[in-house]
């Protein structure tokens, strides 16, 4: 009987997750529309909606569909909204959260390599407005926008610090057009830094004051948290481990130096090693085939993990974190990446250390830079809010 009860509980939780995920993806819907999208019965949808409204996770409002009255279901919002935007070489990711850290909307827009800043920022503004409309929200609810750039960001002007890493974005003031469009503060940072922030607030590192986030995507970056805050360094370049030299005679990197770690573990390098046996591939193909058991793909990812782990060990000797969190597309290969990374890390650290540094994989390895931007916007708005006088 306990087994049956457990099965019913698991089914109910799966139905709840299905319903919430559908609203995250498609925005506010009527109960009938929710039943169609989720495949659940209208009775089940009605029951779940009532439960989630009671829990404060959903809100309902009257609406009209085809001339008939209906109940519109949307995610509950608390106080205001933080918007996170992640600009990567080939995609734009949007995440919107409220003050309860509930995710109101998530969207990803593919972009051509070498996309222009002005066009991409216009698309970002359209995407934000569409997401707000789908969620039944308004732009005046936004308390801030956090933008994650897939490039080093300078501390003094919050623009890209090293040309060539995100082509076409050098010298671009990202904050100004977004701030003017939405009349709200805009915060700019490197994507690994904001991913580390997300992990410390609602990810794998909640409760940890000192951590290193390793972003293994098309190249490598690190976000460092010390005392609960991101460590930027004087110029903003702290954590740029992808530009640490590992081969003095190696290839020229996008930063202009020779033999950087990124020249060995960037997407084009990794897939090129399999071009004879596997043909044209992308990083997603490499990870998918590794997860399916392909020995060549698993070897390529494992070798990359060893290289990255060795460099990460040097960083950890310098900052001595409590925890390392792995994120990015290569991290989605699970133990194929994390096991050799962990072995290389521990081999290069102090052999007589009291305890080895714990390594975890992010629960949200692909989109946490945008999430970090949204969470930062919320937190900054709270910090800057005036303190109400105490009643006498």
UniProtKB/TrEMBL annotation:
InterPro entries: ATPase_NBD (IPR043129), HTH_MarR-typ (IPR000835), ROK (IPR000600), ROK_cs (IPR049874), WH-like_DNA-bd_sf (IPR036388), WH_DNA-bd_sf (IPR036390)
Chain segments annotated as transmembrane: none
UniProt domain HTH marR-type: residue ranges: 17-68
Lineage top rank: taxon: Bacteria
UniProt cross-references to PROSITE patterns, sorted A to Z: ROK
MF GO annotations: DNA-binding transcription factor activity
Species the sequence originates in: Bifidobacterium platyrrhinorum
Pfam families reported for this sequence: MarR_2 (PF12802), ROK (PF00480)
Family assignment from sequence similarity: Belongs to the ROK (NagC/XylR) family.
Protein name (record): ROK family protein
Gene3D superfamilies, sorted: 3.30.420.40, Winged helix-like DNA-binding domain superfamily/Winged helix DNA-binding domain
């Amino acid at each position: 009987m306990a087994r049956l009860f457990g099965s019913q509980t698991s089914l109910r939780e799966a139905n709840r997750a299905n319903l919430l995920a559908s609203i995250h993806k498609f925005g506010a819907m009527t109960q009938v529309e929710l039943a169609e999208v989720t495949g659940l019965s209208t009775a089940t949808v009605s029951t779940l909606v009532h439960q989630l409204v009671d829990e404060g996770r959903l809100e309902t409002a009257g609406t009209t569909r085809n001339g008939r009255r209906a109940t519109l279901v949307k995610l509950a919002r608390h106080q205001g909204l933080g918007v996170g935007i992640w600009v990567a070489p080939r995609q734009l990711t949007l995440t919107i959260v409220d003050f309860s850290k509930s995710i109101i909307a998530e969207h990803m827009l593919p972009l051509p390599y070498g996309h222009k800043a002005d066009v991409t920022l216009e698309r970002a503004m359209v995407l934000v407005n569409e997401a707000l409309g789908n969620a039944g929200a308004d732009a005046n609810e936004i308390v801030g926008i956090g933008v994650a750039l897939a490039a080093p960001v300078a501390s003094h002007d919050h623009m890209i610090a090293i040309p060539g890493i995100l082509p076409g974005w050098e010298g671009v003031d990202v904050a100004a057009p977004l701030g003017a469009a939405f009349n709200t503060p805009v915060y700019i940072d490197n994507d690994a830094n904001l991913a580390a922030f997300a992990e410390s607030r609602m990810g794998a590192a909640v409760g940890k004051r000192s951590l290193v986030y390793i972003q293994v995507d098309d190249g490598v970056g690190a976000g460092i948290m010390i005392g609960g805050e991101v460590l930027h360094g004087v110029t903003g370049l702290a954590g740029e481990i992808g530009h640490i030299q590992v081969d003095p005679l190696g290839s020229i990197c996008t930063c202009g130096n020779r033999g950087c770690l990124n020249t060995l573990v960037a997407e084009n390098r990794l897939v090129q090693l399999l071009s004879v046996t596997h043909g044209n591939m992308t990083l997603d193909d490499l990870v998918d085939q590794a997860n399916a058991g392909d020995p060549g793909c698993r070897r390529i990812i494992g070798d990359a993990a060893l290289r990255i782990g060795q460099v990460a060990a040097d960083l950890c000797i310098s900052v001595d974190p409590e925890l390392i969190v792995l994120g990015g597309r290569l991290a989605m290969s699970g133990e194929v990446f994390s096991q050799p990374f962990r072995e290389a890390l521990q081999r290069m650290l102090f052999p007589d250390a009291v305890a080895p540094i714990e390594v975890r994989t992010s629960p949200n390895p692909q989109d946490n830079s945008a999430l970090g931007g949204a969470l930062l916007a919320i937190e900054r708005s709270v910090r800057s809010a005036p303190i109400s006088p105490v009643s006498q």
